Amino acid sequence: LFRSIVISGNTSPTELLAIAWCKLRGIPYCLEADGAFPGSGRGLKELIKTQAVRGAAMYLSTCRELDKYYLHYGAEAQRIRRYRFSSLGETDILPRCPSREEKNAIRGELGIREEKVLLSIGQFIPRKGFDVLLKAAARLDRDVGIYLVGGEATPEYVALREKLGLANVHFVGFKPKTELAE
Fold first, then answer.
1. In contact, 123 and 149? CB cutoff 8 Å
2. What is the pLDDT of residues 66-118, one digit of tens each?
């Protein structure tokens, strides 16, 4: 049975302390991230990253670029394990783009008024960054409809939308996967 502490990331002070703690106590650790790009390899920051990355028992990677990052900082290739970052599988992706007419029909059915649409699906929890999205939405043209799907918006998100005057931001409740395609 393989036991290890999974540390998500290797750049924040908290992550670096967790890695150092594991190394000092001889506790195997696994690094996980959802993407990163290697730096120049020069300087103190790069040395710290190399020391943090090198020596992990396993590396969880979402893509080739992250593999390159881990390898750049001293990971052993045989310790890198890929996992699917998205909950979407190949069968969830449309085989072709819908025609303009099909899109307009779907827009009508769903009540979408705006010309452009930004769709985000996820729970209304702080780490999803919907607050950042709402603040950025204040700078977008009002013909961009922003649809947040994934449950009931918390009072904080509703208040932020009102404070920023974002009539083009729509909170959509939970939708089963069968309805998400539309």
1. no
2. 999 999 999 999 999 998 777 677 777 788 888 989 989 988 999 998 989 99
DSSP 143: T
Distance separating alpha carbons of residues 102 and 105, to the nearest angstrom: 5
Confidence (pLDDT) at 2: 54
HSE (side-chain half, CA atoms, 13 Å) at 127 = 0
- Edge-to-edge strands of the sheet including 58-61? 5-8, 29-32, 58-61, 80-82
The two three-digit tokens of residue 43, written as one number: 């300087």
CB atoms within 10 A of CB 74: 14
**Residue in this structure with the two tokens 């649409």, named with its chain if needed:** 117
Query: Euclidean distance between the first and final Cα of the chain, in Å?
Result: 43
Residues in the chain: 182
Mean pLDDT of the chain: 88
